[in-house]
Every structure is written in C-alpha cells, then in structure tokens.
Amino acid sequence: MPPAPPASDRWIVLKFGGTSVSRRHRWDTIGRLAQRRAGENDARVLVVVSALSGVTNELTAIADGAADSDVRLLQLEQRHREFAVELGLDPEQVLGERLAALRALGVDPRAGGRDLAWQAELLAQGELLSSSLGAAYLRAAGLDFGWMDARQWLQASLLPNQSPWAQRLSVSCSTSPSEGWSAAFRQQPARMLLTQGFIARHEDGGTAVLGRGGSDTSAAYFGALLGARRVEIWTDVPGMFSANPREVPDARLLTRLDYYEAQEIATTGAKVLHPRSIKPCRDASVPMAILDTERPELPGTSIDGGAATVPGVKAISRRNGIVLVSMEGIGMWQQVGFLADVFARFKKHGLSVDLIGSAETNVTVSLDPSENLVNTDVLAALSADLSEICRVKVIVPCAAITLVGRGMRSLLHKLSDVWATFGRERVHMISQSSNDLNLTFVIDEADADGLLPVLHAALIDSGAMPVEETSVFGPRWREIAHGIRKRDTPWWQGERQRLLAMAAAGTPRYAYHLPTVRARARALKQLSSIDQHYYAIKANSHPAILKLLVQEDFGLECVSLGELQRVFEVIPELSPRRVLFTPSFAPRAEYEHAYGLGVTVTLDNIESLQRWPEVFRGRDLWLRVDLGRGDGHHEKVRTGGKESKFGLPVARVEAFVARARQLGTRVIGLHAHLGSGVETPQHWKQICDELGGIANRIGSVEIIDIGGGLPIPYTADDEPFDLDAWGAGLAEIKAAYPGYRIAIEPGRYLVAEAGALLLSVTQVVEKDGVHRVGLDGGMNALIRPALYDAWHDIVNLSRIDEAAEGVFDIVGPICESSDVFGKRRRLTVATTEADVVLVADAGAYGFTMANAYNLRALPKEEVLDV
Ligand code: LLP
C-alpha cells in the first residue's frame, strides 16, 4: 500500500444527487458543506454531482430514440436556462457552449442508428450542464472552486464478456491510478473542485457512462483513486435504515455498518446507496458516510472496515417483482452437468439468477426483476427451452423478504416469532447466503403487504435485532420525521414526601394517583368517535377508582361474579345497564346471576346456548367474536386466534345467530377484544371495520364494542399512545357504519400510570459479580415482570437525587427464580437496607393480580387525590 499522503493533501469526496442540485438553496448548502470540510485539517474537497433531477430520464428517452426528441431537447435547454437565471447567472455565458453541444447531438448523424458512443455523449450532458451551473454559482459566491471534466480522470476498464452496450453505457472504472495521476490531480489550483458523476473516458478517448446509480460509484472511484479520508454521499434521506421507513415508521437509522453489511443492505433493498459504490471504497479502505442534505446535523450512516461487528439482524427488506422458476428434474438429477445445462439456458436468455434452492428432484431459482423480464415472452421462451430437460413451473409475482445481518446462523434460535409470522404465508423458498449475511424468504407478493412492520417488531422483541446497541442503531424514522413525543413527567416525582410518609406506614403498598386516572378518562371521553365508555375493572378494582370512573361517565366491565359484587357494593345505585359481564368459561350460575342483576351479558360460544337454553331464552346478549388473530405486548395477553380460548370464530357466527333466533335471544351487541398493550392504532380500526361487516349481516346489532388493549409507555423509549390518530381512524370506519354505536372497554390505559408500588429494601448482596437489591415484595405483589417479562421503571425514592451509577438486579423475597423485577437496573450505589424503592406504572394488573404466595401478606393500597 502506498504511504498515505500528508494530511494537507488528503481529500474528502462529497457526492450530491439530482434533488440536491436542483434548487438554489441546495447549492448554498453544498457550498457551505464543502467549505466546512475543507476546513477539517486542511483537507481538499472534491464535489461530485448528478444531473438536475429528471434530466437523465429525459436524455435516456432521447437516446432510446423517442419520437418527440426535438421537443424534449428544447425543453431540457429551457430548463437549464431557467435554472441559470434562478441562480442569478447569465445563461449564455455559463451554458452557451454546452447547450450548443447538446443541440448538435440532437442532429448528429449517429443519432439515427442510436450509435452507442453517441448515446453515451448525449447522456453525459446532464452532469456536464449541472456541474457547470454549480461551479459558476459557487465561484460567484466567492468560493475557491475549480471545475473539472471527470472524463479526464476516470478511465473505463473494459471487462471480458461484457456486451458492447455495457462497455459503453454501464462501465466500471479502474481504481489504480496510472503513473503521475495523483500528482497531476493535486496540481489543480483550486482548493475545492467540482466534477460530474456518472461519466468516464472510454478506451477510445470518447465518453462512457457508468449506468444507473453511477454518481455514487463515481464518488467511490474518486475516493479510492485519491485514497480519500472519506467519501460522503449526500442525499435526501438520513441514511440507511433497518427497514424502508415508508413501510416501517419504527425503522431505526443504522449509524454504523461495515462494508459487507452495507453492501448486503444496499443490494437487497435500500435505495440510498448504489451497491456498486461500496467495493471500490472497501478495497481502498476509504470510509463512506451517507448524510441528509436537508438535515446535515443527523449522524447519518457511516460505513467502514473498523465498524464493530455487532452480531444480529441489522435490516429487513422487501423486493417485489421476483420471478421463481421451479424445475422438476426427474431422472436428470445427479447427472453430471445437469445444472450447467440449466444455467446455460438462463444465460442464453440474458436472465440472471439470484437465489437457488435445490432438492433431490427439484431446483428452484429466483430471478431478479430486470428489464428483459418485464417482457414476458422471455419467460415463455425460457420455459420452452427448459422443458426439454425438466418440468418447469413459473411462480409470479413473488416478493423476497430478506433479513440482513452478521452471524445469521447463530441467530436462528431467536427467530421463532419470525418463523411464526411466516407460518401464516406460503413460503416458496428460503435461502441463506453462503457469507452468513442474509436469510431470504420468498412468498407471494400479495402476502407481503403489511408484513414488514410485524416482522420488524418481532425481530426487536425477540432480541434478534439488537436495537439497544447504540453504536449501530440510531433513532427511529418517525422520531426523525415528526420528533418524538415524550412521556409526561410522572406524577410521583412531585409527591415524593407524601409517598415516603406512606411507605413509613408499611410496605409493600400501592399508591394510586386519582388526578391521573381522571385525566386519562377525560382524554378518552373527548374523542367524538366513541359513543360508550366502559372500564375493565380487572385492571384495578379499588373502590375510589371505580367511583371516580363512574362519575366520569364510564360504565364498568366485569368478568366474574366477584367483580360484579364489588361494583354494586361500592356503587349500589349504579344502573345495571351501565355494567357489562364478559366472562370466560364461567359456570352457568354466573350467567343466571348476571341476568338476574340486569347487566349486559356477553357470550362467546354456541355450546352454552345449546346446553343452557333456559338461561338465554328470550334474553338479549352481546356476542364476542374471534377475528382470527391476536395482538399485544406479550403472547400471554393475546386473546384471538386458534390458540386462544376467547371468542366465537367468525365462521360460526351464522350458526350462533340461527340458534339464538330459535331461542328468541337477540344479539344486540358485537364484541371483540384481541389483546392487551397493542401499539398500532390501526388495530382497532380494523376490528371496527370487521365487526361492522358482521353486524350488517346479523341485522339486530345496535352496538359494536372494540375492546380494550390501549397501551401505555412503560419505558422512556415508548411513545405515549397517539389517541388523536386512533380516534381519527375510528371516525373513518364509523362513517362507513353510521347505524351502530361504538364502545370501548380499556383497563390499563386508565389506571396503569396512576399507580406506583412502594417497597422497602431488605438486603443488598453481591454474588459472583452480580449485585442484587432485595425488596420486601416481589412477584407476589406485582407479577407482571415474572409473568410477561414486563418492564417497569424502578427508582430509589429515598435517594432520588443521587446519581444512579450502580447496576443491580432488583429482586423480591419469593422462593422462585423468576422473582425478579428487573435486571441490570441503575440505582445509586448507596442503596441500602430500608430505602424505599418505587416501581412505576403499576396501577394496572398490579394489586388485582397480587397473591399470597409463600404466605406473604397482600400489599396495602392507598389513594392520593389532588
Ligand atoms: N376487555 C376484555 C374482554 C379483556 O379481556 C380485557 C383485558 C380488557 C377489556 C382490558 O384490556 P386492557 O385495556 O387493560 O389492555 N394482565 C395483563 C393484561 C391482561 C388483560 C386481560 N384482559 C397485563 O398485566 O399486561
């Protein structure tokens, strides 16, 4: 390797694409960025630009012989003249010669035969024009910018087996500088230089072009030839993401990748960087960065050889338009040369094979979408050819879903949710790359819709995508695009003294902050799309909370006789019409009792109607259906789908209604609750839509109950639920089914954040390097962490102002190894016996799930109002 040039002579290459060069203010940014880079340790700067946006497409149409080429050329000329004026330049002075050259190409005798050299020259005009405009503008602004013709410096190298077309219009360039190249390059007087992407010198001295994505590749070639400090690709997105942000708003910015991962991501999906551009930089060990011209303050994506090799899935992508060719080889298999015969036929038709799967009698390959594939005759011709040696089936259209990351093989055990997701689709083919960097599933294109957000979430939940690695994963797309909505400061921070006083009277103790419950209730009530509100009292049945919510005009949803009794004990005057009874596998007597009380009964199976006709005869009821899927923060709280015990399958609704009619039973409500802690607002919109359709078929339904399940932000990373978006989505559906009232029955949303669990430290112990803080209550007082791996923030309330620099596992006193509130949590190192620890967001499913295991007493409960 040649010695690195002195720092003062090290280059930074900046590349700007079409949208970055088409507006005046963008050129101001280019000037500013170039100057800033030139100030970094006396660097020199080379700026590589694309043509104005859309121009290359126009030139391609003309090169392809479009009938209205004259008009298009005139328009192109006009467009550049106008832009010169926008830049405050004299069009004739800056562009006169170039536009004359463009016009001359239009009437060039070679145009008739669409001569390849002529096409290349024509295509090159876009970059020549944009770079001339930019250089003139930057110089006029007083910057020390020189302009150079890239064809003087980039030399196309002809590869064997390349078609004449590719040798002219899709060339690669040499990255080893010829004798004197570097010295000559350095001689150029200006500190900053501007040149064209996409174009190079052909061996015959004429013009060649690099093909699509050529500007990125040009920048990379220059970076490699110059041994640059860095190649920066400035574009209109913040970098590479863990998924396409348009499809997956939770996709994470990938802040640092190694060349190989970046290559794989660029090849399998991300459009931000042309895959060809990585190798030249990789071979020359030149770091790359992808940065956002509009948001230069963001970190972007850095790609270099020293990137820490964090194992795990970094990105997931989807490619549409994949064609699968399945070949049954029958007797041919195992014959020497069979595959060679097969692939020769693909070659003959100019089709490039991407994935390959093979079995004893079958070889299946996928073809990348390419121009000649759009023409279906190619496939017919290929099939005809292949059928001489095997039976052929073409499967279209397919989508390839690819997981990219390091060490895919060692991740398989974490991918069970991913496999489960695919379990619902027909997977035609699974392929694992031999470099262990990708795993691809090919499915029908129609099945791929909506799959990416689900897969992305499953990868994070399972730990297969290690988003906590901040050296690799940056902010979410939606944070970047819309800013993140932070959780409110929790109420208990302002109530520390009162809470400590309560704790002094004995722990474990739950404290409920009624103003928080009230605020949540009112937020829900102000949404116009909901007509009736119920509170699922299983979340927290403290009398003060029941009274408060009834005052706020909520009805109450109960699931047992015990809960019904609680409700009428606490609020004897409550009208039974405001009470729902939605039990699961309850005994007959509970239904009889509920009807006796006059509350609304919900049923979710036919068997009960058949076995206990007397209970339901002549009565009204709500029917709970299972829409075939569940959702929620943990598999144990998903209440839909075959594995779940809840709900009548939609296919049996008709039979249920028929049976009910025989009994004179009226189905007046339709209900679905598919899970708890669901994060996507569309979940309820979809439920509402499906229930609306079913209600229309039943006829007697008056009300649609879309369940509870609204999430709360348990971690600092979680965003508060977007109630407005939720309500707006429901309003859309409601408009489609104006005849029904819409009901909800949340539990968690109303009470979780209002509750804190106070505990006292019993012991602080170190064992084998693990420090543990023990508390006087554990899974007996709050079972959610043990049961669902649920996260609750934990603070040392006694020492809340001390820096939390110690790392502890927080455990309870129960004789079970799952008695852990949280692992590797930060508390002050001074944490000691009798300190009061607060477990946050414990107002829902806290006390109501507490138990006396190990014969430990139930926690106390207390409320705080105003
Ligand atoms: N409606 C029905 C029919 C339900 O089964 C439930 C909760 C709700 C409404 C209220 O769901 P929420 O809005 O609270 O998500 N123990 C688990 C939650 C179990 C939820 C059971 N059913 C946890 O701590 O996460």
Automatic annotation (TrEMBL):
<keyword id="KW-0547">Nucleotide-binding</keyword>
<dbReference type="InterPro" id="IPR009006">
    <property type="entry name" value="Ala_racemase/Decarboxylase_C"/>
</dbReference>
<dbReference type="InterPro" id="IPR000183">
    <property type="entry name" value="Orn/DAP/Arg_de-COase"/>
</dbReference>
<dbReference type="InterPro" id="IPR001048">
    <property type="entry name" value="Asp/Glu/Uridylate_kinase"/>
</dbReference>
<dbReference type="Pfam" id="PF22468">
    <property type="entry name" value="ACT_9"/>
</dbReference>
<keyword id="KW-0028">Amino-acid biosynthesis</keyword>
<dbReference type="InterPro" id="IPR036393">
    <property type="entry name" value="AceGlu_kinase-like_sf"/>
</dbReference>
<dbReference type="InterPro" id="IPR002986">
    <property type="entry name" value="DAP_deCOOHase_LysA"/>
</dbReference>
<dbReference type="InterPro" id="IPR018042">
    <property type="entry name" value="Aspartate_kinase_CS"/>
</dbReference>
<dbReference type="InterPro" id="IPR029066">
    <property type="entry name" value="PLP-binding_barrel"/>
</dbReference>
<dbReference type="InterPro" id="IPR001341">
    <property type="entry name" value="Asp_kinase"/>
</dbReference>
<keyword id="KW-0067">ATP-binding</keyword>
<dbReference type="InterPro" id="IPR022657">
    <property type="entry name" value="De-COase2_CS"/>
</dbReference>
<protein>
    <recommendedName>
        <fullName>aspartate kinase</fullName>
        <ecNumber>2.7.2.4</ecNumber>
    </recommendedName>
</protein>
<dbReference type="InterPro" id="IPR002912">
    <property type="entry name" value="ACT_dom"/>
</dbReference>
<dbReference type="InterPro" id="IPR011246">
    <property type="entry name" value="DAP_dec_asp_kin"/>
</dbReference>
<keyword id="KW-0808">Transferase</keyword>
<dbReference type="InterPro" id="IPR022644">
    <property type="entry name" value="De-COase2_N"/>
</dbReference>
<dbReference type="Pfam" id="PF02784">
    <property type="entry name" value="Orn_Arg_deC_N"/>
</dbReference>
<dbReference type="GO" id="GO:0008836">
    <property type="term" value="F:diaminopimelate decarboxylase activity"/>
</dbReference>
<dbReference type="InterPro" id="IPR042199">
    <property type="entry name" value="AsparK_Bifunc_asparK/hSer_DH"/>
</dbReference>
<keyword id="KW-0663">Pyridoxal phosphate</keyword>
<keyword id="KW-0418">Kinase</keyword>
<keyword id="KW-0456">Lyase</keyword>
<feature type="domain" description="ACT">
    <location>
        <begin position="327"/>
        <end position="400"/>
    </location>
</feature>
<dbReference type="InterPro" id="IPR054352">
    <property type="entry name" value="ACT_Aspartokinase"/>
</dbReference>
<comment type="pathway">
    <text>Amino-acid biosynthesis; L-methionine biosynthesis via de novo pathway; L-homoserine from L-aspartate: step 1/3.</text>
</comment>
<dbReference type="Pfam" id="PF00696">
    <property type="entry name" value="AA_kinase"/>
</dbReference>
<dbReference type="InterPro" id="IPR045865">
    <property type="entry name" value="ACT-like_dom_sf"/>
</dbReference>
<comment type="pathway">
    <text>Amino-acid biosynthesis; L-lysine biosynthesis via DAP pathway; (S)-tetrahydrodipicolinate from L-aspartate: step 1/4.</text>
</comment>
<dbReference type="GO" id="GO:0004072">
    <property type="term" value="F:aspartate kinase activity"/>
</dbReference>
<keyword id="KW-0210">Decarboxylase</keyword>
